[in-house]
Design goal:
Chain B: It is a multi-pass membrane protein. Chain B: It comes from Azospirillum oryzae. Chain B: InterPro entries: ABC_transp_permease, LivM-like. Chain B: It is found in: Cell membrane. The structure holds two protein chains of two kinds. Chain A is mainly α. Chain A has helices at residues 2-33, 40-56, 61-84, 92-114, 139-161, 163-173, 175-180, 185-211, 217-231, 237-257, 263-277; strands at residues 130-132, 135-137. Chain A has one domain (2-277): ABC transporter involved in vitamin B12 uptake, BtuC, CATH 1.10.3470. The relative contact order of chain A is 0.21. By secondary structure, chain B is mainly alpha-helical. Chain B has one domain (2-240). Chain B contains 15 helices and four strands. In chain B, the strands form two sheets. Chain B has a two-stranded antiparallel ribbon with strand order 1-4. Chain B has a two-stranded antiparallel ribbon with strand order 2-3. Chain B starts with a helix and ends with a helix. The chains are: A mainly alpha, B mainly alpha. Chains A and B meet through helix 4, helix 9 and helix 11 of A and helix 4, helix 5, helix 11 and helix 13 of B.
Amino acid sequence: MFAELLQYLLSGLTIGAIYALAGLGFSIIYNASHVINFAQGEFIMIGGMASATLTASGVPLPLAILIGCGGAMLVGVAVAKFAVERARNASTVTLIIITIGASIFLRGVAELVWGKDFKRLDAFSGETPIQVLGASMQPQSLWVVGTAAVLIVAIGLFFNRTLTGKAILATSHNRLAAQLVGIDVKRVVLASFALSAALGAVGGAVVAPITFSYTEMGIMLGLKGFTAAVLGGLGNGPGAVVGGVIVGVAEALGAGYISSAYKDAIAFVIILAVLLFMPNGLFGKRGTERV
Amino acid sequence: MNTLLHGRLTGLLALGAVIAVLPAFLPNNFYLDIAILAGFNAVVCVGLNLLIGYAGQISLGHAGFFGIGAYASGVLVGVYGWPPILALLTGAVVVGLLAFLVAKPILRLKGHYLAMATLGIGIIVSIVLRTESGLTGGPDGMMVEPFKIFGFELYGEKVWYWVVGVLLVGVVWLSLNLIDSPMGRALRAVHGSEVAAEVVGVDTARFKVLVFVVSAVFASVAGSLFAHYTGLITPAKADFFKSIELVTMVVFGGMASTFGAVVGAVVLTLLPQALTVFQDYQQIVLGGILMATMVFMPKGLLPTLAALLPARRRA
């Protein structure tokens, strides 16, 4: 009974860590540019596919992850520079369509480069399950949760301690004022896309041994990252992380106790309930609008 | 006012004329079939355009409403033996109520929350349709009985073409009237500045809810008729990608332009047929076209073309 519950909690935490990273990516880009980047899931896919295919052709794992991460960052910057930035003054709907177009485009390119079939990436430190109070845990889960935790702390430090991080925060609070004190707002947007892409790609690489890599792996991971971000209050970084963990754990519990067929629906049921009853997300503040 | 009314009539007559003469240029049923599919998409897009273009909100789940309408017809007629028209109306009422219940609290918020909520509804609907295979036939879909009314059966492309044509003209006429009503003018104020509209006493949330419900009902009715026309309905017609496709049609054709929505629906229904020659590059080309249109014509196809032809626009 307890072992079963613990089992669900552990697997929920693992997948929740990936949702948290994706949600954080949504929040960072939303803060810097007020764009909902629906290509976020494709960054995860690029990380997963690149590390799986590169290690298969003999590249050492850390280098493969690094290359995947760098590739995703380049793609992120390209999307920001050639699509989002050019449509700066367009409506939010237009910007959403641009990022959706980018994600379809990237999936198409990925299919061309890597093919449609599932790619396998070996677990980083073996497959011998670890026994925890009667529940068993894949060692890869520790990698996923640990990596996510390190990245989240690093992002927190980056925003609070470094000048670039503070510049991004300043831009998200007031774009014009940030520009007036000499912050290069355009570079902030590019940096935010690069940062989100890196988060997604690393997440994709560490989760690949559990989920397999395929060109459509980013769709659901990305959408659930979006629910995590909205759950925590859009633009609220720590909120997105908590939202991700909540979505992941609820999904694992729902799949275990209610119905595994409806696993993918659970995140969206939660978000609908929250929007209907707590309309600003769990941690969003009720803002007043300046006219 | 007179010129506005005039312009509205001209557009409607032009649309009617195109629909009337088009079959003469379509060599066989294959082309007629594509025209009918474009017509169904156009009906949904005209409604969605009211929401996106005039209420400034986005729905990422309209295919879900389309799917509810389609499956209401499929299940109620096929499994429970209801008359098709009753099934269609039931679907429309259910979708209208659902849209109302969801929109009422959410449309009071600013920003992307309706996008999130509709995305959620769409995905939940498509998962339910895939999973409840006892009723819906699961991922493979279900057969749908033909549409019969007063002992008369709608059958064949030639009949359906006129059904969809009349439906489209009716939906466009309704939308143009809605846009030009006092409520429509209020909506444009909402899109311009919500706060300003509220200050002068416009109940913005109420209008947005109404438009959302109307657009969802359009989608449901189109879904019901579509199911009867094709005779086969699958959950793919209700999923996230179909929703994205619909939004894309509206934005591509031109937001806040009813005829733009029709043009967008027609062009993007034809595009995949044309893109089959690209085979493996299909997704790349589609994604590329989406991005390029939005970057270079952020207002969409028709408004951009109209701006190039100022003289004709005044006529």
